[in-house]
Amino acid sequence: MMTPGSCPAAPTTAHPPICPAGANGGSQGLVRPRMVLFGDSITEQSFRPGGWGAALVDTYSRKADVVVRGYSGYNTRWALFLIHHIFPLDGIAPPLVTTIFFGANDAALLGRTSERQHVPVSEYKDNLKRIVNHLKDCSNSMVIVLITPPPVDEEGRERFARSMYGENARKLPERTNEMAGVYAGQCIELAREMHIPCVNIWSKMQETKGWQTLYLSDGLHLTPEGNAVVHKEVVKTLRDAGLKAEEMQYDFPHHSKIDGSCPDKAFQ
After folding, report:
1. Does the keyword Cell division apply (predicted)?
2. What is the pTM of this model?
3. CB of 79 within 8 A of CB of 127?
């Protein structure tokens, strides 16, 4: 028999009690909201050491689950085949946030070694629009963030090609910074038209002297310093959208809120 105000005995079951969603003092419930990173290899690699996706996991630790859906070599045309699988219109809760980071492959030049990935710039913009519209159909409250393709260091791409293929390396650049900028411009324009935020990595990185080797490992993909720029700009954009990590609730009570002699109170 319990005396008034006493703590009930701890459960004797070998398994911890399972509380219903919302039983943890008004927090997010048992399921954390998701942030989905959708893009090409620059997104796929974002969970490597020093990656911008891994840094987001740390920033939003216990506030949101960061899920990577990056596909090396993909352009927006091929991404359209994925959206109904990754973002179904029913069945699971839609993400709280989705970043869309395509364009580096769409901007590959025709007549060069990577022309198979090329997507005309007008189609690139239309494909991005179709992806955004699908996400809006999934949720009218989802924060959708477009990210422009990064700049291209053509000399760095040439050095990388020579290191990989020696004398058989391609003689002409398969990507140029000028063309990447054209695609970045269309990404920015679409974001403006659809009233969604856009991270202009193409311009931001070029503000720093020596960006070619500081931010890019092979003329295209990101160094840890380049990843840090993407992380900083994405977090700034999410904060502007009202998703400040320090103001978001934990999925379960912080340990300081748990009474060692009566822990169940923290979970009521």
Report:
1. no
2. 0.86
3. yes
Pairing of strands 65-70, 34-39: parallel
Antiparallel, parallel or unpaired: β 143-147 and 65-70: unpaired
For the chain, give the number of residues. Answer: 268
CB count in 10 Å sphere of residue 90: 6
pLDDT in tens, 116-137: 999 999 999 999 999 999 999 9
CA separation (Å) from 164 to 39, 76, 105, 148, 158? 25, 27, 19, 27, 10
CA distance 124 to 71: 17
Residues 144 and 119: their CA atoms lie apart, in Å, by 22
Per-residue pLDDT of 219-264, as tens digits, reads 899 999 999 999 999 999 999 999 999 999 888 888 998 998 999 9
DSSP letters, 4-67, are TTPPPPPP-SSS---PPTTTTTSSS-SSPPEEEEEESHHHHGGGSTT-HHHHHHHHTTTT-EEE
Q: Whose CA is closest to 147, among 213, 218, 56, 59? A: 56
Dist CA 52 CA 196 (whole Å): 21
Given a contact cutoff of 8 angstroms between Cβ atoms, the answer to whether 74 and 105 are in contact is: yes
Tokens of 217: 């490992």
Integer Cα distance of 149 and 147 in angstroms: 7
Residues annotated as part of the active site? 41
Q: pLDDT higher for 253 or 178?
A: 178
Residue showing tokens 């502007």: 240
